Amino acid sequence: MSHAYALNQIQTDATMDDGGLSSPNMAAPVKSGRPRSEESRKAILDATRRLMLHTPLRDLSIEAIARKAGVGKTTIYRWWPNKVAVVIEAFSDQLDLHAPHLTEVSMTTTDALMAQVDKMIRHLRGRNGRIIADIMAEAQADEGVMALLQAFYMDARKQSLQHLVYQGQRNGEFGAVIAPDIAADMIMGPVFFRLLTTRDGLDDRFIEDYPVTVLNMIRGA
Question: Residue 94 carries which DSSP code?
Fold first, then answer.
């Protein structure tokens, strides 16, 4: 699913501001007009990445992005509804916002699940985790931002974990008491709780211990 397609499903016709979308229940018309200039697009995304190195999302503004990119605000608003959408596209590769790749067929479901949990934690360490945490904080007050976060990050991860739990239950590697969707929530919950509430929650010890804890929980369920 492309960024442009997904954003057209999520965007609203609310007034554009730096805070995000304010009327998530109203569908926005698809943006029309001249195609994006690839040079301007790259400049905007590069400027956003550089600003986010030292600027929290709450302090980031469309004005600052436009100034650093050397473009007008209207150029940015022609292509993105708000600053969160710009940040999501700017960091799509770094944050692994695309749907996770399925693991190799030769791997057992147990190995695949542990690898997926390990990958999720590692992607949330350092700057990447700070950006996701900032987006999650914005999402608490803005349903439109929450929709973007769900569409581009949370849903793909939950579905991947849910699928692995389902496969493991079918082939007998995991217990079948917990529903796969609830199991996925149980796996993701502690990771994001630590990301949001502790300074060094996703440290080396957690990376080493947590996938094993997940496996013990799912096997014994």
Answer: T
